[in-house]
Amino acid sequence: MRKKNKVKQLNRSADHRKAMIQNMVISLLRHERIESSVAKLKVARSYAERIITRAKRNLDANLVNLDEKKKAETVLHNTRYLYTHLADQEIVNKLLNDLANRYATRVGGYTRIIRLVNRQSDNTAMGILELVERKTQDELKEEVRQKREKSAGSAKGKTEVKAKKEKKEKKVAKAK
């Protein structure tokens, strides 16, 4: 009997289950939409909603009544919590800067599950887990492209500086 046992086992060990759910949530936050079996999606949905709610706690509206020291401690605590549970700096930054602001007025229900046709091989119920106010695929690709250009621009500037230093060193060596 499973009395008072609320953990969905998903036929996996605890470590495997934790890693799988963490990877699913990271993929959900990165792509804003994932496809899997409905049982896995239900578990990932509850975890993702708790993570988004934790990120919303860093917004200024939630920290109004605290003094500066308590506010800084709360922000640091929530940020560290997100880093320990997601372990991906890019996703945590997106969560704190983009998603928390996007869902600032929403009280809950940040995700939805859309059921699909059962998988043909084993008749498993399949579905799509997506963020409610999600960006389109083109917008996400544009953001990634801009990040790449920005990082390539800064890397390009660094390589140009290095090349100039090397040229100066060669001139000095030839002059001697």
From TrEMBL:
<comment type="subunit">
    <text>Part of the 50S ribosomal subunit. Contacts protein L32.</text>
</comment>
<feature type="compositionally biased region" description="Basic and acidic residues">
    <location>
        <begin position="139"/>
        <end position="163"/>
    </location>
</feature>
<keyword id="KW-0689">Ribosomal protein</keyword>
<dbReference type="InterPro" id="IPR036373">
    <property type="entry name" value="Ribosomal_bL17_sf"/>
</dbReference>
<comment type="similarity">
    <text>Belongs to the bacterial ribosomal protein bL17 family.</text>
</comment>
<feature type="compositionally biased region" description="Basic residues">
    <location>
        <begin position="164"/>
        <end position="176"/>
    </location>
</feature>
<dbReference type="GO" id="GO:0003735">
    <property type="term" value="F:structural constituent of ribosome"/>
</dbReference>
<dbReference type="GO" id="GO:0006412">
    <property type="term" value="P:translation"/>
</dbReference>
<dbReference type="GO" id="GO:0022625">
    <property type="term" value="C:cytosolic large ribosomal subunit"/>
</dbReference>
<dbReference type="Pfam" id="PF01196">
    <property type="entry name" value="Ribosomal_L17"/>
</dbReference>
<keyword id="KW-0687">Ribonucleoprotein</keyword>
<protein>
    <recommendedName>
        <fullName>Large ribosomal subunit protein bL17</fullName>
    </recommendedName>
</protein>
<dbReference type="InterPro" id="IPR000456">
    <property type="entry name" value="Ribosomal_bL17"/>
</dbReference>
<feature type="region of interest" description="Disordered">
    <location>
        <begin position="139"/>
        <end position="176"/>
    </location>
</feature>
